Amino acid sequence: MNILYKFKPVLLLSFLFLSLIAKAQNNDELINMLIKKKVLSQKEADSLRASFTAKEKTKRDTQKAFPLSLGRALNLTGLFQERYQSFQGTSGIDGFDTRRARLDFKGAITDNWDYELYVEFAGTPALLDGYTTYKFADYLKISAGQFKIPFSYESLVSDSQLELIDRSQVEESLNARAKDVLGNQNGRDIGAQVNGSFIKLKDSYLFDYTFGVFNGNGINRADNNQDKDVAGRFTAHPISNLSISYDFYHGRDIFGTITTTQLRNRQGFDAHYAYGALSVTAEYDKGTDAAIKRDGWYAQVAYFVIPKKLQLAGKFDTYDPNKLVATDRSKWYIGGVNYFFNPWTKLYINYSYKREEVVAQSLNNLLAAEIQVQF
Predict the structure, then answer these.
(1) Rounded to whole angstroms, how far apart are CA atoms 231 and 253?
(2) Do 109 and 84 share a domain, yes or no?
(3) Domain of residue 11, residue span
(4) In which band, very low, low, confident or very high, does the pLDDT at 358 lie, cut at 50, 70 and 90?
(5) Quick one: angle between helices 24-36 and 42-61, nearest 10?
(6) Which of 131, 205, 235, 253 is the most buried (most CB within 10 A)?
(7) pLDDT of the residue at 60
(8) What counts of helices (H) and strands (E) characterise the chain?
(9) What pTM value is reported for the model?
């Protein structure tokens, strides 16, 4: 019996052990050497190469964060989004834009005390989040600084985790975003809040709450009046994977054609259910800006037709910017396809079919694509 054949299993095991501590190029050299020595057949060598390639890909794909970390003191991650939009008619100019380019600095001061600095570099650089949180217990955490206002499910979802490229009309209009009377504040303000969870059943809590006090003047600026705004959100989880929430916002802020202190109030309800490849979300919000009353709602569904790779999403989105005007409500029908190259790189493709309650319908449908990279 050929002695090499007799000890072939031992040699193969030794090779596998050595390959775990060798670089990829050394693996290939070792395989070639073992082929030459007739320890491995070409078929076995090809199988090993495929196995190493698959393991390296899995290792890269399951890596959750950019590997710049200084213990618990600092962890650096980021987000980049490049978008292309094609507008129907004359509603916009087709072209590319760098929508988001962000770095996120997080760390722990102690076991119960942490911080975050989240910076936007697209356009004019700006601080989005800058706050610190102290945790007394799961039922009581206190935060102070600049962060997201606790109002609306969709507004609170991270930009990188949205299932469609844009948030709904009502969120953009009532949550300190692009169409709000305060201007685009990225859904954030400066203030302090308490939040927590209570009544734990098995591995999850039944209720969550957040209550905050804010300047009401947006990000990176001091308050411009003596009044402070308050916001709150209460969430119940009656069954696994289901969240049902009520939230409110009450403020007296300076805005309008003739700038003066006026009421800026909001209320909303939302529900979100996720199970396996399926997620379903619905939300209704209403608001008052001085004498103008506004409301809107959306319903959205998303489903992974290929797990972790190919996702389809659809949304019905309707918004009324002034309840006293009978012909200004808009209805958007949005469809999307999301392809995940890996957990941190995603391509969105969306088409929005837009209709308004007017006699002469505008040609303003929109085709958009966006590439997203997280690191």
Answers:
(1) 14
(2) yes
(3) 3-60
(4) confident
(5) 170
(6) 253
(7) 56
(8) 6, 17
(9) 0.81
